[in-house]
Amino acid sequence: MEILIAIAIFVAITALVLWRSIRIIPQAQESVVERFGKYHRTLKSGPKVVIPFVDQIRVDVDKRDQVVSFPPQAAITQDNLGVSVDTVVYYRVTDVYNATYKVSNFITAVEQLVSATLRNVIGGMDLEQTLTSRDQINRELRSVLDEATADWGLKVTRIELKGIDPSESIQEAMEKQMRADREKRAQILQAEGDKQSAVLRAEGEKSAQVLRARGSAEAETVQAKAEAEAMTLRARGEADAISMVFKAIHAGGVDKDLLAYQYLQKLPEIAKGDSNKLWIVPTEMGANSSFWPFANQMDEITDALRGGQKAATPTEQHDAADTSEAPGRPVVDPGVDLPTAVELDAPENDQNS
């Protein structure tokens, strides 16, 4: 019985020793081993053997990229405006020994370093630069943290600003300013639009007037040319007509009776007009006169009206008056040409008569 108890105790102690001697380190993790309270070695990933009760694992360090979100940090800008900044830090442990023995708590150390550096960077910018220069702030923070954390076995890979929030009073003032700027831009754009519209309208009216003037000038020129051509053609036509009539008269051998008849037909046309009341026709013009187309035409008209009998000359009329062969005829002194007065009434008088 005592032997069985001793064997059981031995087996238990052996199992405990074996359990404490074999350690399995996960991937991307390292462990710091101390022997009798002093750094001994660093265990990599995989199964490892340590001496129980002699070697002790101080800390297990994860070498993957870590993300730490820090609470909002208060900062004051260059123009004395308070802002609250939320930051996120991405870091990675590059040296397990330095991260364990050169800083007591590297997370707290990084947080305080970020807070101090952030206040320093934002203190050199005004509010507008702070709100619009996140990339610049990230670069400056990363540069300072890389230099400070190099001895701690850390590598800051990235810093992001989640938010930069001014105070409520500043936000209200910014909203008013933005609203005023929008209204100002809207008024400027409207004024520019009205100006451009007026300029374009004036240019359009100017172009329209120029085109209208050009069109009127061209139309007048065309009309003048057309009228000139029409007058030329009309004159040529009238000349041709006169020439043809002249040739036809001379070629047809027109007698005196026809000429007298045509002359009588043209008299009413010559006397047309409301203002024509009296028309004086000379009774005789010289045979060689250039102002009368036909010699002794009045005698010929008289002969035609009398049926071919020739009109008596003033001498014959005087002789007839002395012999009383033509009673009632007026006595005309020979050698004196008296005009025959033909009274032409207006169309109203003809209708009334």
From TrEMBL:
Q: What residues does the Band domain cover?
A: 20-178
- Localization annotation: Membrane
UniProt keyword annotations, A-Z: Membrane, Transmembrane, Transmembrane helix
Start and end residues of each stretch annotated as Disordered: 306-353
Membrane topology term reads: Single-pass membrane protein
One Pfam match, given by its short name, reads Band_7
SUPFAM superfamilies from the UniProt entry: Band 7/SPFH domain
UniProt main location, coarse: membrane
Q: Which family does it belong to?
A: Belongs to the band 7/mec-2 family.
Q: Which PANTHER family match?
A: STOMATIN-LIKE PROTEIN 2, MITOCHONDRIAL
Protein name (database record) = SPFH domain-containing protein
